[in-house]
């Protein structure tokens, strides 16, 4: 007599049975890649593989989650319950999958994509449960690739619904953080590329978290991830990790250091990322090159024409070369035109803002422009025969005031008329709508003297100030030997070394960063 099955306990469909046998074989033979192929989540590839469309149809016929659970438990037994739940969640994910689900080519695709994303998160949670077991090392690659696909689907959901707060991507943070913590908790050392360990995907998972933190503006949390990586003691090198993984890690490391204003270290990390990135991937190399050129510029290393002429740098010459020339000459007006603040090329301001580099450059290049301006005055007014090279602060003030003057079309006439009609609006006389100095503040002698003192304090100029009687100009007395030292030598790290993972505290006491680096305790 044939067995009678209830609706919640149907017979095992043939394709589901073949899929379960494949999972069993992959685990028995310890083949992580074969196991990942069995748990493929990328719908763009799933429906191009022959068994998966049939698996999708069979799951549509089962209809109920309880039916899928009973089928898996009957075939797999209770030897590894975490794996059973992972298999059930995958079959339930396949029930919701559709070819081209994230493409705007069918009605109702928005809700279908959202529904699929919720199922995908449930599958990721089940993967974490199986990954956390003592036998979970074989699932490492599956966990890593599933996390990657979660990011891509989360991006699509945010884009489809026009969510500027990226709530779908943010909902993945805890899931991926748990996956990362599971991989870090493993104590076995990772020394050979053919080892089956959870640590083999630790750096990839960290990169996914860095991407999420940058996207959701929660970058302060990245420090905890780096501290955990430092405690694990992984060697970031090939063949233990793939070159794309190493490249991505150094990229986010450089962005994080640049955000902390540690420009020499950021330049070093981004250079490592750029060197590792394959020359064929022009889009990725360009993404690395833009912050790399910015960091190099801020530490006094201007790009060569050879770098600007590379395929990935197409179009960057008209952005970076005018900026470098303006900084070299101390030309504030040329700098504003290079940044798109003044002049006809307003599109440059939008480009810098899109790259999130506009405020960083405006804050950090200002002191370099002042240094170059003073150096230019020194070259023009002092001769080698003089025993002492002296520059009057009044001369610096006159040049800076002329370079900060707005063109007539840039002056806010309404503000100018208000100040002239109602003097009480500005009782202290600090406003000046005709100047670019802090976008409308009067540039006075005291402000110029403060800038010079800052340059002296940061050792960007060697010398000292001599105050004169009230009616006379303060004097800047320059050092006899190299009064304008090389900025790169001042900013560069004392020991050139690769950015290693074992650097959880590389910012010095109190995490204070200066342009000339941080001194260790006890160093003179």
List the main descriptive attributes of the protein structure presented here.
mainly alpha, single chain, 524 residues, 2% strand
Structural class: mainly alpha
Low-confidence stretches: 494-524
Average pLDDT across residues? 86
Q: Helicity, in percent?
A: 55-70%
Main pleated-sheet profile = 3 strands, antiparallel
Tell me the distance between the termini: 92 Å
* Element-by-element helix/strand order: HHHHHHHHHHHHHHHHHHHHEHHHEEH
Shape annotation: elongated
Strands, total number: 3
Order of strands across the main sheet: 1-3-2
Radius of gyration: 31 Å
Strand content: under 5%
Tally of contiguous helical segments: 24
Describe this structure in words.
This protein has 524 residues and is mainly alpha-helical. The chain has helices spanning 14-28, 32-38, 43-46, 51-62, 65-76, 81-96, 109-131, 140-160, 167-170, 173-184, 202-215, 222-232, 243-259, 263-276, 282-298, 305-308, 317-329, 332-338, 347-354, 358-381, 393-403, 413-421, 445-457, 487-491; strands spanning 390-392, 463-466, 475-478. The protein has a 3-stranded antiparallel sheet. Helix 7 runs parallel beside helix 10 (173-184), helix 13 (243-259) packs parallel to helix 15 (282-298) and helix 14 runs antiparallel to helix 15. The model is unreliable at 494-524 (pLDDT under 50).
């Amino acid at each position: 007599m044939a067995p009678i099955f209830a609706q919640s306990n149907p017979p095992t469909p043939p394709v589901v049975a073949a899929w379960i046998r494949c999972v069993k074989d992959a685990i028995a033979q310890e083949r992580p890649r074969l196991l990942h192929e069995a748990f493929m989540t990328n719908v763009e590839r799933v429906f191009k593989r022959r068994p998966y469309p049939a698996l999708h149809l069979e799951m549509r016929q089962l209809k109920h989650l309880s039916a899928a659970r009973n089928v898996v438990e009957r075939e797999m037994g209770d030897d590894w319950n975490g794996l059973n739940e992972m298999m059930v969640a995958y079959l339930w994910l396949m029930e919701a999958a559709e070819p081209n689900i994230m493409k705007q080519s069918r009605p109702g695709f928005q809700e279908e994509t959202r529904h699929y994303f919720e199922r995908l998160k449930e599958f990721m949670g089940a993967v974490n449960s199986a990954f956390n077991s003592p036998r979970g090392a074989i699932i490492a690659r599956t966990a890593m690739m599933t996390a990657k696909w979660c990011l891509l689907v989360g991006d699509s959901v945010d884009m489809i619904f026009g969510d500027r707060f990226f709530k779908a991507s943010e909902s993945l943070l805890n899931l991926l953080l748990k996956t990362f913590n599971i991989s870090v908790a493993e104590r076995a050392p990772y020394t050979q590329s053919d080892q089956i360990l959870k640590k083999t995907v630790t750096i990839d998972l960290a990169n996914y978290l860095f991407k999420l933190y940058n996207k959701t503006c929660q970058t302060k949390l990245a420090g905890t991830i780096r501290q955990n990586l430092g405690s694990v003691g992984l060697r970031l090198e090939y063949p233990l990790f793939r070159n794309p993984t190493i490249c991505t890690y150094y990229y986010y490391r450089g962005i994080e250091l640049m955000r902390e204003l540690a420009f020499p270290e950021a330049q070093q990390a981004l250079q490592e990322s750029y060197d590792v990135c394959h020359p064929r991937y022009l889009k990725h190399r360009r993404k690395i090159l833009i912050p790399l050129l910015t960091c190099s510029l801020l530490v006094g290393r201007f790009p060569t024409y050879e770098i600007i002429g590379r395929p990935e740098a197409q179009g960057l010459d008209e952005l970076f070369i005018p900026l470098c020339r303006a900084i070299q000459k101390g030309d504030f007006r040329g700098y504003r035109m290079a940044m798109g603040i003044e002049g006809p090329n307003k599109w440059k301001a939008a480009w810098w803002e899109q790259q999130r580099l506009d405020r960083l450059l405006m804050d950090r290049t200002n002191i370099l422009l002042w240094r170059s301006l003073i150096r230019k005055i020194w070259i023009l007014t002092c001769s080698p025969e003089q025993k002492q090279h002296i520059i009057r602060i009044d001369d610096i003030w006159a040049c800076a005031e002329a370079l900060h003057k707005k063109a007539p079309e840039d002056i806010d006439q309404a503000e100018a008329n208000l100040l002239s009609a109602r003097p009480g609006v500005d009782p202290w006389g600090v406003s000046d709508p005709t100047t670019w100095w802090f976008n409308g503040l009067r540039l006075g002698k005291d402000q110029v003297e403060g800038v010079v003192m800052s340059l002296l304090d940061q050792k960007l100029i060697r010398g000292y100030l001599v105050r004169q009687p009230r009616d006379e100009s303060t004097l800047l007395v320059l050092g006899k030997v190299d009064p304008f030292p090389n900025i790169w030598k001042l900013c560069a790290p004392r020991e050139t070394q690769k950015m290693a993972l074992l650097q959880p505290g590389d910012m010095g006491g109190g995490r204070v960063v200066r342009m000339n680096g941080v001194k260790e305790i006890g160093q003179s």
